[in-house]
Amino acid sequence: MAGSVVLVTGYPSFGARQLVSHLLAEEPDTQVRAVVRASLAPAAQAHRASLDPALAARLTLLDGDAAHLDLGLSGREVRDLSAEVDRFHHAAQVSYLGAEPREAEALNVGGTREALAIARALPRLRAFVHHGTAFVSGDRTGLVREDELRRGQRFRNAVEETKARAEKLVRDASAHLPTVILRPSLVVGDSATGEVDRLDGPYLLVLLLLSSPVELAIPLPGRGRAPLHIVPVDYVVRAARLLGLHPDAVGKTFHLVDRAPLTAREVFELVARAGGKRGPRGFIPANVTRALLHTPGLDRFVKSPRAFFDQLVTEVQYDTRATDAVLGHAVSCPPFASYVDPLVTYVRARVEEERERRRAEGPDDVEDSLT
């Protein structure tokens, strides 16, 4: 869009990097202002330097912190932004399911409160796009609608609970601000390259399959009948950009999900096939799995296994009527089968890189669990 200036928080997190790159590539006249925490400045500068120079020239890095008053920006910076920003993508969030409650509270709730305060100071603002999560549904089962938030659900971790409170803040502000709420489900790597920043969530079982002997069939935790709600990051950022531009999106909430999700068993059968492994055989009953995941000391090796397992066995479906009505066929989530190969290839490369790093460091007393 000609002359547009977009403010983005959360940069240079993986999702925010993808969003910024997409905005710059798709909108040749758009300028991006990205709020960057001081400790992440080297990573932000490195990503900016990796961009085509013509794109990098339209990206300005602002020293700040989404969890601080006024996003940690100076009064002059806020005044400058108020004169130019017409879109605001608030993508700063703690999404890691094993996060400490204090950290999740500070960024998810406190950061959203500060972002809304800045948004109120932007007279040209046409869309405040809040990057939330479908998992504000907590332990709900059955169909979850986009216009629902609190329906008596219990939250299984600090991320779900604080993201629900953050969404409530945005909903309350919608009477005075042009809000757009996004609820992506579990975000995995890029559908073309497989790139991702952190191997958690479903990647825990991908790693297990890839590191197991070829002849060994790994049992699933639970029966694998529940839908596993997965979306690639490139679908999320494409939808986010279009919804931030669409006037009919204002005041609404949008589930960014696979409209025909595979079951957990179907997902891992495809992963096993892509990795040249045997598909899962049998299952570990849910109650036994929960007991195993409470083994003392397990969190030293796998940071959020219980949180992911809770998602793995929850029989929930996400309504997409608002998303379908606004986006139509402009962008759609690709089927998992179409991008499982790049995901597995990327994970395999990461595993090999880790093995090479360990070999270079020399022998030690730590057993290589990926061998």
**What profile does the largest beta sheet have?**
7 strands, parallel
Number of helices: 13
Structural class: alpha/beta
Q: What is the share of helical residues?
A: 25-40%
Distance separating the two termini = 50 Å
Mean pLDDT: 87
Characterization of the model:
It is a single chain. The longest helix has 22 residues, at 340-361. The protein has 13 helices and 13 strands. The model is unreliable at 288-303 and 365-371 (pLDDT under 50). The protein is an alpha/beta fold. The termini are far apart. The protein has a seven-stranded parallel β-sheet with strand order 3-2-1-4-5-7-11, with helices on both faces. The chain has a two-stranded parallel sheet with strand order 6-13.
Question: What tags apply to this protein structure?
Answer:
globular, two-stranded parallel ribbon, 13 helices, disordered C terminus, 371 residues
